[in-house]
Amino acid sequence: MAMRLMGEQFVTGETIAEALANARKLEEKGFRYSYDMLGEAALTAADAQAYMVSYQQAIHAIGKASNGRGIYEGPGISIKLSALHPRYSRAQYGSGDG
């Protein structure tokens, strides 16, 4: 229960659309948000491609929701490089290089 309450402070939605909608009222009061996709780490090329598509969709949604506020006043996104390429240790496993 305590972890859930703490998590709600930082996790505003399960999808980017839900998170943007939930943040709207606080943004009107001057709060700023930087969105993050939780739990991503690409282990395969297919994972990396799926995360790339998800990031592209999120960036588009955030840009649309910013309503021309610009990069300092509008919402942002945190992009993890580990989501865009399979991890080196996993990619090298069994290849004789690692």
UniProtKB/TrEMBL annotation:
Chain segments annotated as transmembrane: none
Domain Proline dehydrogenase: 19-87
Alphabetical GO biological process terms: L-proline catabolic process to L-glutamate
A Gene Ontology term for the protein's cellular component: cytoplasmic side of plasma membrane
InterPro entries from the UniProt entry: FAD-linked_oxidoreductase-like, Proline_DH_dom, Proline_metab_enzyme
Record GO terms (molecular function): L-glutamate gamma-semialdehyde dehydrogenase activity; proline dehydrogenase activity
Keywords noted in UniProt: NAD, Oxidoreductase
Presence of the UniProt keyword Transit peptide in the record: no
Domain of life the protein comes from: Bacteria
Name used for this protein in its record: Bifunctional protein putA
Natural source organism: Raoultella planticola
